[in-house]
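Sample intake sheet
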Amino acid sequence: MSPKPGALVTGIGVVCAGARNVAELRCLLARPRRHFAPPTLFPCSGASTGLPVAEAAVTAAEPELPRTHQLAWLAAREAVGSGPAPDAIVLGTTTGGILRTEAALRAGSAAPADYRCHGLDTVALHLAQQLGVRGPVITLSTACSSAAVALAVAQALLRAGLVGSVLAGGADSLSRLTFHGFRSLQLLAPRGCAPLDLHRAGMTLGEGAGFLLLEAKPGPRPVLAVLAGTGLSCDAYHTTSPHPEGVGAAQAMACALEDAGLAAVAVDYLNLHGTGTPDNDAAEAKALRRVFGPALPALSSTKGLTGHALAAAGAIEAVIGVMAIRDGLLPANTGLATLDPTLGLSPLTTPTAAAPRVVLSNSFGFGGNNACIVLAHPSVRPCARAAASADARVGPPALPALRVGAVACFTAAGDLEGTWAALSRGDSATGLVPDLAFAQDITAPFARRLKRLPRLLLALAQAAYRASGSVAPPGLLAVGTAWASLADTYAFLRKLGASHDEFGSPIDFVGSVHNAPAGQIALLLGATGPNLTCSAGDRSFAQSLLCASLGLAAGSALVMAAEAHEPGLSPFLEPAAQGADLSEGGAAFYLLPDDQGPGPRLRWLGEGAASATALLDTLGLGALSERYDAVLLSLPAALSGGWSCAELLALPAPSVIPVRRYLGQHASVSATVAAVAARAVVEGCLPLAERALPLVRKRLLLLDAGPRASAVEVFA
C-alpha cells in the first residue's frame, strides 16, 4: 500500500451529555454514568412523554444565538485554544438554527430576523467570525456521518496544499424536528439505548459538538495523534435503512485503511457507529466481519454513554479516539446488559487500560452515507510527512480543472435550451420552474412521493447523466442546497404543531434531511462512491465543485445544486427575493478529469472572508481584463444596495454582469450561471447582457459576493 500524507491532530474540543469539555469527558469515560432524561428544551406530552434524550449540560454563553451555534463555539474554542486561528473550517451539521425556526413558526412570526440563523452555514460562519478564519468555511450535511465526512474533506484540503491548518468537526442540538422525527420512525429507545444488546430497542437522541484541529506539519502545538486515513461510501440501498449485509460500511472501512496505508490487523480499537437500533447494529457487525474476519480488535460503542448526537457524533467519537491514543483508556460499551450472540462481537464491558496505536471509528447516516476515519499514534508514521510546505496558507490553489462531459439546467424558462433561447431573445429566466420542464426527466418510481426540490434534483441528475452517455455510475456525487427541501420541513413542523406535538409525518421528516436528495440520486444511479451534500448558502454550488476537485474519488463526478420555493418558509429565509425576484432552479454537471478532450471546464479558485475584490487580489487575479472576457457577478438582493455593490460593478474587467438580474434571486443561482457559462465558452458568445457579448478568450469568472466571497472559472 502507498499511504498518503496524514493530518496532525494538534487540538481537540468537545461538549456532550455529561461533559462540558475534554477533561470532563475523560472522567466520564473512566467512570461511565448515563445522563439520559426527558427533554427540557421543549415540552413533551402524549406519546413522547418519558422518552429519554441526552442533553448537553451547558449554560448559554451567548443566549442570542441558537443552541447549535453555542455548542459549536464551546467545542471549537477548546480545540483552538490560545493558538493562532486555523486557515479553514469544515463543519458537519444537520440542525443549524432549527430550534429558533420552530419557535418563530409556532409564534406566527413573519419577521425575517427571527429566521436569520435557520441556515446550516450560519453555524460555521459564526465560528469563522469569532476565530478570524480567512480561508474556506465549508458546511457539509450528510446526516449522522456529517462530522466524519467533514474530517475527510479537511484532510483533503491539507493534502491539496490549499491550507496549512483546518478546524474540522460537527455540531447538532436537540430539536422538535429531530426528536419527533425519529419518534415517528419508531427509532427511539423507551428506556435508553443499549448498543449490541439482545433486547436493544432503538437509539437515544443526543446533542453536542466535537472538533479536531488538524495541521499539515508540526508546529508549536504538541501532536496528539494523526488522522491517518479516511474512507467514504454510499450504500445506494435505501433512504433510511442500512444495507443489511453492511456492504457500504465495509467499503468505507477498507477505503480508510487503504488511505492510511494500514492493514486491518494494525487496528487496536474500533469505535462502532453502534446506535442501538436492531438493523444498524446487525449490519455493522456483518461489515466488521467482511473487513476484519474472525480476529476483531477491541471494540465498543460509546453512544450508550453520550447518546447519538447526530451530525456531531463522528467528531465526538473522533475526540474519544484521540483520547484513547493519548491517555491509554478504551471506553466501555455502556448500556449493554445481555449481549446479542447473533452479532458475533465481544465488546468491552468496562473501561480498559491499553495503549492503542491505531483507532478506527465508524459513522453511518441516512441516505446510506458511510464514513470511516483512522487515527494513529504519532509514532506510527513520522510527523514530517506533511502534505504542504512550511509556508502553506490560503493562497492561489493548485486544484485541477474538471471537464464538463454533460450539463443540465432548469430555470423559469425551462431546460438549458429554453433558458439559452430566452436569454438570447433578451428575456430573463427569473421565476419558478414550470413543472412540465422537468417532470419528463423523472423516471424513478419512488419520485412520486417526493416534494419539489428532490424531484427537481433527481430530474437534473438524470438529465445530465443521460446526456453524458456513461454506462457506469459517477464515482462521486456532490449536491449543493442552501435550504434543503423546505416543503418537507414546513409540512412536518406544521403538522406537528397542529397536533400539539403528537403526530409528525415520517415521510416529511426523512424528506427534510439535507442529504435526502443525494441519497435518492445515489439510489437512482446506483452510485456507491462518496456522497456529499454541501449546505453553505450561496456558496453551496461552489463548495460542491470544490469537493469534487479534491480527489476524494477517482473518475467521474456528478456535481449539482438547486433550490425550490416554499411559500411557507422561503419568504423568511430569502426576504429580499420577493415578487418579480422570486426564483428557483438549478443545474447539474457530469464532470471528468481534464483529459484534454473537447468541451468546457470548471475550476474552483478560492473562497475568502474579505471582500470579493480582496479575494481576487489574494488569488492573483488583479488583471481581470487580461484573463477573462467577463465577470459574472452573483450579488444577493440583500446586499445589492450595500457599499460593495458599486465597487464590484466597477471591477477592472471588460464586462461585469450582475447575473441575478437574468437568472433570479435564489441561493443556487451560481449553478445555473455556470451552466449558461459552460455553453457560452463553447459557442463563443454570452447572452447574459443587454446585447450578446463575444467571448474572445472563452474564459469567464463566476464571482459570488455573498457573506463570504467565492470564485469559479469556466473556460474552453
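Comment: The two ends are 37 Å apart (CA to CA). Residues 126 and 201 are 37 Å apart (CA to CA).
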